[in-house]
Amino acid sequence: MIAPSVLAADFANLQRDVEMINSSQADWFHIDIMDGHFVPNISFGLPVCEAIHRHAKKPLDVHLMIEKPELYLEAFKKAGAANISVHFEACKHLHRTLQEIKNLGCLAGVVLNPATPVSVLEDILPYCEMVLLMSVNPGFGGQQFIEFTYDKVRKLKRMITERNLNTLIEIDGGVNYETGQKLVEAGADVLVAGSYVFNAKNPVQTIEELKTLYL
Ligand code: DX5
Ligand code: ZN
């Protein structure tokens, strides 16, 4: 699956860019929420998420880069989130938070920063419907892909298979055709792509090319 990141869209032409994703082969809208505390950047919040939802014809994949994400789960559900992913590093009571996300009827995801090993998921994995591995340090688009991510994907894939789970593996940061190809080989199910899609001459075609990685 491909989830273009709206963070790289033109916010003054958001409806145009949402329609571009609607008309493409993209599967989800990736929505990056940053609070200026958990990450050193502020993106946008609930009203923008809700506005995107009004025009989006595909599910919203909400990535919360915020402290105390448990306080905002219901609000993001109301703003149209289909998937809600929270950072392992931001959750004191991750098991409870994942259950709250599921109780809202959303797909529950856990995000790991590049420096957080997949081994921390050993016990909680059966409660994660998706694991999002950051392949850059969260906070900004357009950063360089961190190479050891491939190993993390392989390790995580092994953990999922060993436990007979169907947890999705999503990768976020520095994804392009080349890194995407290796990620899919390693076991990635969902690729997030921001600058690679939106800086392309033909974003719809670029999404189409990324989709061929799954053929
Ligand atoms: C980074 C965000 C990403 C970002 C990816 O903190 O979580 O979703 O938009 O951007 P690219 O694809 O440009 O690395
Ligand atoms: Zn993201």
Automatic annotation (TrEMBL):
InterPro entries: Aldolase_TIM, Ribul_P_3_epim, Ribul_P_3_epim-like, RibuloseP-bd_barrel. Pathway: Carbohydrate degradation. The keyword Zinc applies. It comes from Pseudarcicella hirudinis. Its EC number is 5.1.3.1. Catalyzes the reversible epimerization of D-ribulose 5-phosphate to D-xylulose 5-phosphate. This is Ribulose-phosphate 3-epimerase. The keyword Metal-binding applies.
